[in-house]
Amino acid sequence: MISIVIPTYNSQRTIRKALLSVIEQSYQNWELIVVDDGSIDRTIVEVNNLINTLPDHVKKKIKLIQQANTGPSGARNKGIKNAKGRFIAFLDADDYWFKDKLEIQYRHFADDSDLILCATAFGHKKLADPMVLKIISFKKLLFKNYFSTPAVMIKKEALREVSFDENQRFSEDYKLWLSIAFDNKCLYINEVLAANQDHKSDYGQYGLSANLFQMEKGELSNYIDLFEKGKINFTLLLLCVSFSIVKYMKRIIVSLLQKKF
């Protein structure tokens, strides 16, 4: 079974589409755990309204947990702790899945017992190119985060000793994927099977420079953490930091151009 974790916070406008994209999956052996992180709008009402329209066999697959606000990492961790499935898949309340996402990912896990994490491309429409599979090594992941959280499925066993860092607000998901990829097999599928409802870019709808800076700080702190834990040496740390700063400057330029035009 696949346990799907959706954290929500003031998501009344988007939560229905997110939930329906799970309910309408071609693969149906799932449970859905919605963790509301202290919403003060009508998110809970929207969730319950949808649940009440569902047949009983679907209703019993959905669990709603309410908690005081802790942030998305705390909400995801709560969902993981309550998950009963062998696999965990994450979806954000303002994103949605294409109908065959779970089926395609589950098939790869079934075909490869060594596989621990499987992620798909994240975007707005399916690619015209043939599907390409890439094994993402730890070193590859250091220089590019291939794994967008709403596109990730992972074996629950990999989350027994690691979790989302609730003290880190930006790039905390990348920190977790790096930790897992260090000694586990990870697969990337270049087929878009998850997307944002508002067509936001990977670093925000408006590319706000303040958010970009915080994301960059988070990414750099991830590299420092790996160095302090002995997972990368000083030379590799310098390479990662330098490459990250170059990417950050590129994003700033793109952000400025978007605002100008």
From TrEMBL:
Classification via InterPro entries: Glyco_trans_2-like (IPR001173), Nucleotide-diphossugar_trans (IPR029044)
SUPFAM superfamilies, alphabetized: Nucleotide-diphospho-sugar transferases (SSF53448)
Pfam families given in the database record: Glycos_transf_2 (PF00535)
GO molecular function: hexosyltransferase activity
Annotated Glycosyltransferase 2-like domain residues: 3-134
Taxonomy, superkingdom: Bacteria
PANTHER family per the UniProt record, alphabetical: GLYCOSYLTRANSFERASE (PTHR22916), UDP-GLCNAC:BETAGAL BETA-1,3-N-ACETYLGLUCOSAMINYLTRANSFERASE-LIKE PROTEIN 1 (PTHR22916:SF3)
Full protein name: Glycosyltransferase
UniProt organism field: Flavobacterium columnare
Lineage: Bacteria, Pseudomonadati, Bacteroidota, Flavobacteriia, Flavobacteriales
